[in-house]
Amino acid sequence: MHKTVPAIELPSHISSIPGNYAYLGVQQSDYIDLFSSDSVSLDKDKYISEIKKDMNELGYDTENLSFQAIPLSVDAMKKLRDQELNNGLLEKGKTNEPTSEDEAYFIYAYQENTGIPVFHELMSVAKQMSDDSPDNAPVQAIYSARGLESLTIDYIYNFKNEQNTVTLKPFDEIASVVEEKYDNMLNDVNYEVTRAKLYEHVYTGEDQKYAEEPIWYFEVMENGSNKTVMLVNAETGKEINLPS
C-alpha cells in the first residue's frame, strides 16, 4: 500500500437542511431501512450528476468521491412524521405533512484515495462518531422535485501520494486481535462481527499536522442488536481506542 499524506483540508461548504427534512432527521442512519425499502419517481443519476457539477463549480474534484442515494418517498416521510409525533419527538404543528413536492433523494458521498475510502478526522473524535453511515459522510445533499434543497461539504482532503509503501499485516492476524478482545470480555454478551472494511484514517498528529494510517474498521453486534465499532491499525495490528 502506498504511503499517503493529506496535504490540506479543502474549504467547507455548509447549507442548512430545510423544513420537513431537518425536523424528520431524514439523513440519520437509524432510518436507512425505512427509506431504502421504498422508491421515488425522480432520476437519481441526474441528481447526482447535478451535485457533481455544483461541486466542480465550487472547486472540488468529484472523481475521488463515491456517491450513494437514499430515496425519500412521501409515504416513508409521512410514516416517520407520524411515528415521531406519536413518540413526542415532534410538536404538532411543527412540520407540515409531506406532499409530492417533498419527494427527494438524500445523496451522500465518502472520499476515496487510491481506491481506499477515507475515515475522516471527525469520525475519530469519539466512539459515537465513528460509524460508517450516511450521516457521517463528508458530502451530504438533499435533492427534491424542486431542485437542490441543501448541500454540505466538509472534511474533504487534497492528498499528496508518495512512492514509499507500508506493509499491511495479514487479515488473519488482524481478525485474531478482534477475536481476542471479545473472547476476553467477562460477560454473557454474544458478540458477532458483521462487517469489516479497510480505511485510510486521517487524523491530526502530535505536531498538529495531518497524518494518515491504514486501519481496519469492524462493526460488532452485541446480542444481535447494539452495534459497536472497533478500529485496528492495519500496519501494526494495534487497536485504536477512541475517546468515549
Keywords:
244 residues, alpha+beta, two-stranded antiparallel ribbon, 5 helices, 21% helix, globular
Structure description:
The protein is built from five helices and eleven strands. The protein is an alpha+beta fold and 244 residues long. The protein is globular, with a radius of gyration of 20 Å. The model has no long low-confidence stretch (mean pLDDT 87).
Overall pLDDT level: 87
What form results from the Cα inertia axes?
globular
**Could you give the count of β-strands?**
11
Low-confidence stretches: none
Largest sheet: 9 strands, mixed
Helical content (DSSP H or I, runs of 4+): 10-25%
Ends apart, CA distance between termini: 31 Å
Beta content: 35-45%
Count of discrete alpha- or pi-helical segments spanning 4 or more residues: 5
Give the helices and strands, then pairings.
Blueprint: E1 2-9, H1 19-24, H2 32-36, H3 44-57, E2 65-72, H4 74-86, E3 104-113, E4 116-119, E5 139-144, E6 147-153, E7 157-165, H5 171-183, E8 191-204, E9 210-222, E10 226-233, E11 239-240
Parallel strand pairs: 4-8
Antiparallel strand pairs: 1-7, 2-3, 3-4, 3-5, 5-6, 8-9, 9-10, 10-11
Short synopsis of the structure:
The protein is an alpha+beta fold. The chain has five helices and eleven strands. It has helices at 19-24, 32-36, 44-57, 74-86, 171-183, and strands at residues 2-9, 65-72, 104-113, 116-119, 139-144, 147-153, 157-165, 191-204, 210-222, 226-233, 239-240.
